[in-house]
Amino acid sequence: MDINKVKIVADSSSDVMSLKGVDYSSAPLKIVTDENEYIDNKDLDVRKMVENMLLYKGKSSTSCPNTFDWIREFGEAEYIFCVTITSQLSGSYNSACLAKQIYEKEHPERKVFVLNSLSTGPEMCLIIEKLKELILAGKEFDEVCAEIQAYNKKTDLFFVLQSMKNLANNGRVSKVASKIAGVLGIRALGKASDEGTLEMLEKCRGEARTIDAVIEQLAKCGYASGKIRISHCFNDATAKKLKERIIEVFGNINTKVYNCRGLCSFYAEFGGLLIGFEKE
Ligand code: X90
């Protein structure tokens, strides 16, 4: 593939707003309240949105990119690798698939591959980084498709949530499951299931116990020394402590800690953490 004709496009649930080395575009999701519409692009003031949401008592919801949003982000590229949030929780994957059909029909010489990440946030970030690596290594389109699907099977996502109100109110998790995280000081630790839904693992009391629980669950998954990406909703302190523990227990790991963008902030809520990792 000619590197100048390749583009990676992901929806904004990946938290990746820009990328160096390969042409990249983020397709924004939206967060909608009775008072505001927040577009999850690089201009969004995430802190202000989260502060507004903490005070806001009305209804709120989200919407994914539609087919034409995706086509716009595809631009004029010839080889497109498109990564979406899990199709179990969002229509993003379906609209991207439709966009692929239309785009390829209009331009028969172009190719689009759409990957349903079965996850979101930092697991998508790992996928995007891997795509970049494969593309820069000079792999052919079909090779990249095969290798990225195999890679996605070896990545996973944990989440630690202090509140699951927005997930429950928008029907992304049962009200019963969301109650776990509703109690002061209790955090729900869970993972993205193999089917791409939320799977509860345990409830943790206090920060220290939560960090230990994540370490235990990582070990249980067979985690050894792969890359780890941690995104958080204004909880840099816990994220950094977790990172330090990971390095203490597993050695000199390639980790990155960063703030969630809009969509993940809305659902992970204030204090929430998402941990994407390579399982083996
Ligand atoms: O289409 C839309 O409106 C977007 C809906 C997204 C719903 C879920 C977002 C979850 C964000 C919360 C914890 C991680 C869950 C991972 C499960 C696969 C982050």
Description:
- The protein has 280 residues and is of the alpha/beta class.
- 39% of the residues lie in helices and 26% in strands.
- The chain has helices at residues 46-55, 67-74, 92-106, 121-136, 141-153, 165-169, 175-179, 207-220, 236-250, 262-268, and strands at 6-11, 23-27, 30-33, 37-39, 60-63, 79-84, 111-116, 155-161, 186-192, 198-205, 228-232, 255-259, 273-278.
- Strands 10-9-8-13-11-12 form a 6-stranded mixed beta sheet, with helices on both faces. Strands 2-1-6-7 form a 4-stranded parallel beta sheet, sandwiched between helices. Strands 4-3-5 form a 3-stranded antiparallel beta sheet, covered by helices on one side.
- Helix 8 packs across helix 9.
- It starts with 5 loop residues before the first strand and ends with a strand.
- The model has no long low-confidence stretch (mean pLDDT 96).
- The protein binds heptadecanoic acid (X90).
- Heptadecanoic acid is lined by residues 29, 62-64, 85-86, 89-92, 119-121, 157, 159, 172, 192, 196, 198, 264, 267-268, 274.
Proportion of residues in β-strands? 25-35%
Rg of Cα set: 18 Å
Question: What is the ordering of alpha helices and beta strands?
Answer: EEEEHEHEHEHHEHHEEHEHEHE
Portion of residues in helices? 25-40%
What's the end-to-end separation, in Å?
29 Å
Short description:
This protein is of the alpha/beta class.
Features:
single chain; 280 residues; alpha/beta; six-stranded mixed β-sheet; four-stranded parallel β-sheet; globular; binds heptadecanoic acid
